[in-house]
Amino acid sequence: MRTATPIEAAKHGTLWKVTESGLSMGTLKIPSFTARLVRWYIVWIRRAKVLFASPDNTRNSFQALYLRPQSFSPPQDLGQDISINRVDVHEWPLYRVSADTGTSGKEARPAMLYVHGGAFFREIDLQHWKFVTQAARDTGLDVLVPIYPLIPRPTATTEKIAAGLIDICRLSEQRIVCVAGDSAGGHLALAAAQQMRERQPDLAAQLRCLVLISPVLDSALDHPEVVRLSRDDPWLAIEGLRVLTPFLSGGLPIQHPAVSPLYGDINHLPPILLLCGTSDMLCGDARRLSARFQGKDAKECMPGSVQLDKFTYVEQADMIHVYPLLPHSEGAEARDLIMSFVRKNVE
């Protein structure tokens, strides 16, 4: 990618495209009716913010799921062109999702490792599987989907999970060329890439790109910009999410890169695409990571989309948490952008 100056943030939603010369800004528009409907559903029907509104609510939720775990099995109706196999690594279930691209060969396809979100205590859901399926179709990569341990299990620290993701990359017969993740999975994807670079540089050298969708970057959740944005976030809340930190840290300091990858080494990472919406409180920490790539301190926030040589940040106005996974036109545009970015970097 070429070096570029920061792209001015649009007042309303913006269509972004990856071209041969880099990221381009398309037509400005207000949030779609469907995007507003999805937001209404999350606020008033799903009442998602109630889950994180208090420490007790969050604690009760993950304890209930620990007693009665959700199914992590992939749906059966993902398409006739999609094949799914289990290729477990150690104690972790691991699914390989492949699309019939009409070509055959003896060599194993390269693969994307996709780490699902869910606040570190919820299993993979239908929207994740739909994204994985599209990734397999649109990029030509197989997609490996690990079912990693969830809070409050003792093996569910971010350091142990990141190590497990690296193990998958090390033991896979397929070359892992992309690591992607959303929300909690975005945290784990970046932490794993940072640890891989430090501990297994030869393995890290195979990575061609990282995709981070609304990632959790600083587990403290105490930056003033995060606090400010949390007031208008229809989904996430600081009070409940902070209950998770002792489980995630496993006794490590809050600014340890495994616990808060915002503070990890960002040098020598593969090209990164980071996407976040301005109605997501995690946008505050996404702006801080963008600031780091622009040579600033981690305490600083730099709002607005930007494209640098190896870092592209898309900040979408009025969009909520993990908007690229949601069923509206802005989500579809973001997914197309992701697929273009991956193809551009792995071909």
UniProtKB/TrEMBL annotation:
The keyword Repressor does not apply. Keywords: Hydrolase. Gene3D superfamilies: alpha/beta hydrolase. InterPro entries: AB_hydrolase_3 (IPR013094), AB_hydrolase_fold (IPR029058), GDXG_lipolytic_enzyme (IPR050300), Lipase_GDXG_put_SER_AS (IPR033140). Pfam families: Abhydrolase_3 (PF07859). The active site is at residue 183. One of its GO terms (molecular function) is hydrolase activity. The keyword Repeat does not apply. Residues 112-296 form the Alpha/beta hydrolase fold-3 domain. PANTHER family: AB HYDROLASE SUPERFAMILY PROTEIN C4A8.06C (PTHR48081), PUTATIVE (AFU_ORTHOLOGUE AFUA_3G11560)-RELATED (PTHR48081:SF25). Belongs to the 'GDXG' lipolytic enzyme family. This is Alpha/Beta hydrolase protein. It comes from Emericellopsis atlantica.
